[in-house]
Write a structure and sequence with these properties.
By secondary structure, the chain is an alpha/beta fold. It is 44% helix and 19% strand. The longest helix has 21 residues. The termini are far apart.
Amino acid sequence: MDIEQYMTGVGQAARAASYATAKASTAAKNAALRAMAAAIRENCAGLLAANAEDVAQARRDGLDEAMIDRLTLTAKSVEAMAQGLEQVAALPDPVGEVTDMKRRPSGIQVGKMRVPLGVVGIIYEARPNVTADAAALCLKSGNAAVLRGGKEAIRANQAIAACVRQGLAAAGLPETAVQVIETTDREVVGRMIALPEYIDVIVPRGGKGLIERISQGAKVPVIKHLDGNCHVYVDDAADPAKALRIVENAKTQRLGTCNTAESLLVARGVAAAQLPALARMLAAKGVELRGCEETRRLVPEAKPATEEDHATEYLAAIISVKVVADVDEAIAHINKYSSKHTDAIVTENYTHAMRFLREVDSSSVMVNASTRFADGFEYGLGAEIGISTDKFHARGPVGLEGLTSQKWIVLGDGEVRG
């Protein structure tokens, strides 16, 4: 296959389709999403069979368990994909929304209208559910999508793509509105990120290495986060039962996600009372602790933590632990080592909570809640295209609004500038 020629054709088709999706009615987009959901349900057995082949190949290729966990589909997760499509259909359509209309002294009215970005390119690894989520969010926000999944999920991704095309056709929309790349050739990624004439934004989802390579080489704007070194800080005014429950969920509910807690901070005033219980709970769940000297005095079985541990996204049954003096040191530590993804405080002190919310420089900051809630579905976005830790355009979970922009509009009645 001539990759340059292939990707030029994909880009041209996407650009043409983007004009159709931008003007598509809400009813047509919602009909397509519901038809996609129906097709996914009808083809559940086929999707699971395709995924089983992907998983078997991944095991032969020696992929780690965290990657295989992200790759694996079940009947439950297939149903969740279908429900995700229906939930996006039920969300308000942001396209065409007019806000901030103000009449100026000249007589004109000035405001903003929400519009699609155009063509969204998404490069992702492992999770085949991203194919359905991305299709849903890009279509509902009036965009066309070019999706390049990892080679480890090629069979499941193509099976889902067939359901997506079926839904688009049923609603009278161009099937090229969502294109899933059919080759595993890595040269495709290099071409995708160098097609500003056809692709308006790139969203990479995957490991830090992948995202760094894309960010450094892209000629197209990138919406991204590099990694998820998320913290839970147990304050000296923390409720012990809440702390135990939140730390357990944040670290152990799923190990391989970007919103899993990788670092635990405990205030010195409650460390002797609370840290041993937290350590016992984590050890019972198979989590290895790597702690500072003060942590190891309270929890002798903890391994010594290095400077690198404090900055590491493990995606594994490991957590770094540090005893800090107070909320000031906790905030300073997080702002130094955090990847600016998601950080949480456990406290009953209102002042400490408000300071943490204001001063921690992350895209999601939480009080008395698990970091695992940092997710588009949990935030009411229906689904997410990814997480952005950048500060321009979109930040945090990126849903429908994050896949649109705004343009100024002016309404007049013959006014001219003097």
